[in-house]
Each structure stands twice: as C-alpha cells, then as structure tokens.
Amino acid sequence: MPRVFAVFITHTHERIARSVMSMACQTLRPDGIVVSCDGDRPSIRAEIQRACGKLDRPVLLVTRAHTGEARPAQTRNNGVRALVEHTGVEDDDRLVFFDGDCMAAPDVLEIHSRALDTHHLCLGWRVELTERQTRTLTDEAALAGTIASLPTPEQQAELDKAARSHGRRALLRMLSLTKPHKPQVLGANFGVRGWVYRAVNGMDETFTGWGMEDDDFGRRVYALGGQPALRLRSCVVLHQHHPTRARGKWKLNKQAPRIDHAFEVACRHGLESPLAQPTPHAELVAPAARTAGAIAPTAPATARVG
C-alpha cells in the first residue's frame, strides 16, 4: 500500500499549530507529518511541540536559518529531503503539500490519495476565511474538523468559480490550446506521487519570493506527461486570515514572465541539486511525554526519493 505524507511549509510560528492539528481528524491517517520552515526561530518549534501534544504523535520538523528572502520552493524540497533521510519515499507514495496557514478538511488526504491511484497530480483548492471566521477558530475545532457554517454561500461561489475555470483549462489542455502551466497548481493544497516529484527534480529553487514556483512545478509535471485530477470542490483547505505578502495580480509578479519562457522538465536546482543554503536541521518532535530525537542534518545534494 502506498503511504501518504503531509508536508507543511511555513516561515512563522503563527497559525502553523492549528494547521498541523487538522491532521488529527483525517479520514485517512497520514503515515508521516513534516513541517519545513524557512527560518529557525525557537517559537516555531514551540508551536510544533504544542501541536504534537494535541495530536499525540510526532512531527518531523525541518528548520534552517532564514536567508533574507522567501524560498518556498527550497523549503518544500527541504521537507522532502528530510523525509527521504528519515523514512524513505517510495515511487508510489503520496506527497501532499500544504501551506502552514491552511487547515485541511477531514477528507483531504483521502481524496488526494484516491485521486493519485489513477493520476500523477491532484489539485485541491482553498477557502479564504474572513478575519471574523478566523477569530472563532479553536484547537478543538481544528482537531475535530468541526468548523461551523463553512463554506458560506459567497465562499462556495468562489470555490465553484475556480473549479469551473480549472475544468475549462483541463479541456483546453487536451486540445493544446492553453498555457503550459494550466490548470494551475495551488501550492497551498496539492498532491503528487513520489516518482513524479523526483522525475521533475522537485520544486525549482531559483524561484524566490512570493509565488510562481507552484505554477512552474505544474508546467513541468504536465511536460512530463502528468495528468491532473481536479478535486477543487471536494478537496479544500481553510486559509486562516492574516495580513498577506501576496503578489496581487498574477501578471504583476516579477517572476511571471519566466512562466512563458522555455524550460527543462527536470529543473537544474531542485530536489537533488539544491541552491546553496544554511544547513537544514531535521528533528523528530514528539509529544512531551515521549522522547524527541534529533536527526543528522540532511544532505540535500545526495538525497534520493525511492
């Protein structure tokens, strides 16, 4: 049976604990939970320790000193590299990625896993919680997956709009009439088979700052021949409201022009050939009653999936 691993990325201690706690209510229990951090502040570990206590299970925490710019692509790769070192990742295992400010609905892992039985990539979506909705969240609700009155009619309409758009793009892709990264991958909620992640060399670490690394990942998986499963309406995460560093309009992102340029299926600086960075540190953080164990710093340049 293929295993399912949940990989969260974050750069802050804020909101990560409840996002991780949402793994407690999954209808398909994850075989491992990884939190990979674009930073190494002690407050991040403290929140993961708190989440472990609620989950009553360990979390593989990956940290490294912040480099002065956001590196979400490298942070995802760091999480996978640590997972490879800790437990291994087989070709048919499922890697399901979330942003650290997103709580997963109870059936998200199961939906991703089932879709990946027949597809290479599974695309979910997210509901943008309002500030008021976010203030009502509790640890208990995150653990049980019982968030009242969600989604609202307005939020459901946005979800339906995204699903229709992705459906059109998938049809156009079959006719070779859409951009190479469509239907787009949302970094906050997507799943992929282990061998596919390895075949494209993971995320392209030359994408820095906010966004575009997920669009680039999608176009390389599609160029590989990957087929996406669209599960936007049923496979959702809840994005906790906070001031955002989002790019605004897609085309205004400084990296947007790169998406239309020629590219290689396996990126040059990715999973097995990373950009230089401070040495990542991986640690198995356990509930307080158990003993946490340090894992040797990962060796990104030699780590392999499978």
Number of helices: 9
Class in CATH? Alpha Beta
Structural class: alpha/beta
Give the CATH architecture.
Answer: Alpha-Beta Complex
Radius of gyration: 18 Å
Following the backbone from N to C, one meets helices and strands in this order, namely EHEHEHEEHEEHHHEHHEEEE
Give a verbal description of the structure:
With 306 residues, the protein is an alpha/beta fold. It has one domain: Alpha-Beta Complex (Spore Coat Polysaccharide Biosynthesis Protein SpsA, Chain A), CATH 3.90.550. It is 31% helix and 18% strand. It is built from 9 helices and 12 strands. The strands form 2 sheets. It has a 9-stranded mixed sheet, with helices on both faces. A 3-stranded mixed sheet has the order 5-10-7. The chain is globular, with a radius of gyration of 18 Å. The two termini are 15 Å apart.
Outline:
With 306 residues, the protein is α/β, with parallel strands linked by helices.
What distinguishing features does this structure have?
globular; 9 helices; Spore Coat Polysaccharide Biosynthesis Protein SpsA, Chain A; 3-stranded mixed β-sheet; alpha/beta; 9-stranded mixed β-sheet; 12 strands; 306 residues; single chain; 31% helix
Q: Any chance you could write out the topology, listing elements then pairs?
A:
Elements: E1 4-10, H1 16-21, E2 32-37, H2 42-55, E3 59-63, H3 72-86, E4 94-99, E5 102-104, H4 108-115, E6 121-123, E7 125-128, H5 131-135, H6 139-144, H7 153-174, E8 189-193, H8 194-199, H9 213-224, E9 228-230, E10 236-239, E11 281-285, E12 293-295
Parallel strand pairs: 1-2, 1-4, 2-3, 6-9, 7-10
Antiparallel strand pairs: 3-11, 4-8, 5-10, 6-8, 11-12
